[in-house]
Write a structure and sequence with these properties.
Layout lengths: L1 E6 L4 E6 L4 H11 L6 E4 L5 H12 L3 E5 L2 E5 L21 H10 L1 E5 L12 H9 L3 E5 L2 E5 L9 E3 L5 H11 L5 E5 L5 H12 L3 E3 L5 E5 L8 E3 L4 H14 E7 L7 H10 L3 E3 L3 E4 L11 E2 L8 H12 L3 E6 L9 H7 L4 E4 L2 E6 L7 E3 L3 H13 L3 E5 L1 H5 L5 H6 L4 E6 L7
Parallel strand pairs: 2-14, 3-13, 9-10, 17-18, 21-22
Antiparallel strand pairs: 1-22, 1-23, 3-5, 4-5, 6-8, 7-8, 10-12, 11-12, 14-16, 15-16, 18-20, 19-20
């Protein structure tokens, strides 16, 4: 098990370079198996979710090479074996194998996914899409059995009852190899979806309309290998921008596409954060505590991203005044709140709505990262705190942040990743 030891109070100064997008990479990697020759993806972050996907690919007899943020996936000798449990259940994004296997083989057995516990995240929309394309889906002992009984998928018109990134991508994957045309209405519009469609089109798919609420997919019989450069991680960028605004003495965040986080940047401006934005970088000026409280409500893209709600919370707690945070995507995304309160923050939850009053002074404490973005929130709070913070659950953070400790240490943070031996307690 791993933990972070963080000594707070150090100002941050310098440059942080954002890695490739986690939420893109975890879909690009399963998408690559739909090709019949090698796929090369550049800009892949070195995070635990990527390493977990690589192990799953190897179980499918896919050859994988991963070095210096470049992954080479060769599915030439791939075997469609059942994957009902084990590694496939270690992360949420493993559900993309459902769409990829169904599209390529017309069948597959995939265990229900794991990932962060953010409350109910049903698979209904995914399964509705697969069934509309002609698949039969059954849940047997915690694994999804998907089949077309040898008939293959057939294009269909599919309306998503709620905007879902995962369902949009999964249906797009399956529809890429279906017979005929599929139209996905009320599709999600996130940048990551555009990136997935770009890769699939390079592999021979025919997808139009990504970035809008209507996506049109014309199925193709075969898909081939290609190379692809993925986008930078907008959530990682927002996390470091929030940290820089909280206790920075002039920090530049590099490899950023500002348009991908415009709603987040708008809230920072509303608070009083001053930033210089260029083509691929954002310089965050020192704030000196002169910020005002604002309300946050998450929404589907291009609204305020649910994944940035938690990393922004410590910054909100430095502001003067009171505010509220409402996550309309994952209302149960509030597990960082009691941990921040343990560190001295005036923050609480009632009926899934977070209320806070600031400014706050943090004190180091022993806290636990319950999930990925809650962990990022606690890292920022610990950097602000007086004294030392022992942050357990570091593995949750490493699932999505590429070398977060090294990047923060390079700009002045006192942060150490250590391995904790629970057997010592016996």
């Amino acid at each position: 098990m791993e933990k972070f030891i963080i000594k707070g109070g150090n100002p941050l100064k310098g440059e942080i370079t954002v890695s490739g997008a986690k939420n893109s990479a975890v879909a690009l990697i399963p998408a690559a198996i739909m090709a019949d020759s090698p796929v090369v993806i550049e800009g892949v972050p070195e995070i635990d979710d990527v390493f977990a996907l690589i192990e799953i690919l190897k179980d499918f007899n896919v050859d994988v090479e991963f070095s210096e943020n470049v992954i080479r996936i060769d599915p030439t000798h791939m075997e469609n074996i059942p994957m009902p449990n084990g590694k496939i259940q270690s992360l949420r994004a493993s559900y993309y194998f459902m769409g990829a296997l169904l599209g390529k083989y017309g069948e597959g057995v995939v265990g229900l996914p794991g990932g962060c516990n953010l409350g109910p995240r049903p698979m209904d929309l995914h399964l509705k899409g697969f069934e509309a394309l002609g698949a039969t889906v059954t849940n047997e002992l915690g694994a999804m059995h998907l089949t077309t009984d040898g008939k293959g998928l057939v294009g269909a018109e599919i309306y998503l009852d709620a905007v879902s990134v995962g369902a949009t991508i999964n249906i797009m994957l399956a529809a890429s190899r279906a017979q005929g045309t599929t139209i996905i209405e009320n599709a999600a519009r996130e940048p990551e979806i555009i990136g997935i469609a770009m890769l699939l089109n390079k592999m021979g798919a025919k997808i139009k309309g990504v970035g809008t609420s209507t996506i049109r997919v014309e199925g193709v019989a075969e898909m081939h290998g290609t190379s692809h450069q993925q986008i930078p991680d907008r959530i990682e960028a927002g996390t470091y921008i929030a940290a820089a605004a909280t206790l920075g003495d002039g920090v530049t965040i590099k490899n950023v596409i500002a348009e991908h986080i415009e709603s987040f940047l708008a809230k920072l401006r509303e608070m009083g954060v001053k930033m210089d934005i260029t083509d691929d970088a954002i310089y965050v000026h020192p704030t000196n505590g002169q910020l005002k409280a604002v309300d946050i409500t998450t929404a589907p893209y291009p609204g305020f991203a649910t994944d940035l709600q938690q990393p922004m919370t410590p910054l909100l707690l430095t502001a003067t005044g009171s505010g509220k945070i409402l996550d309309t995507i994952y209302p149960k995304r509030v597990k960082h709140v009691p941990e921040l309160a343990r560190m001295g923050a005036n923050i609480s939850v009632q009926n899934d709505q977070i209320s806070y009053t600031g400014p706050n002074a943090f004190t180091g404490a022993t806290v636990t990262a319950s999930d990925l973005r809650a962990g990022a929130s606690l890292v920022i709070a610990a950097l602000m705190a007086e004294g030392e913070t022992e942050l357990f659950g570091a593995g949750n953070i490493l699932r999505g942040y590429d070398h977060i400790d090294k990047k923060l240490a390079a700009v002045g943070a006192d942060i150490e990743l250590v391995h904790f031996d629970y057997s010592a307690l016996d």
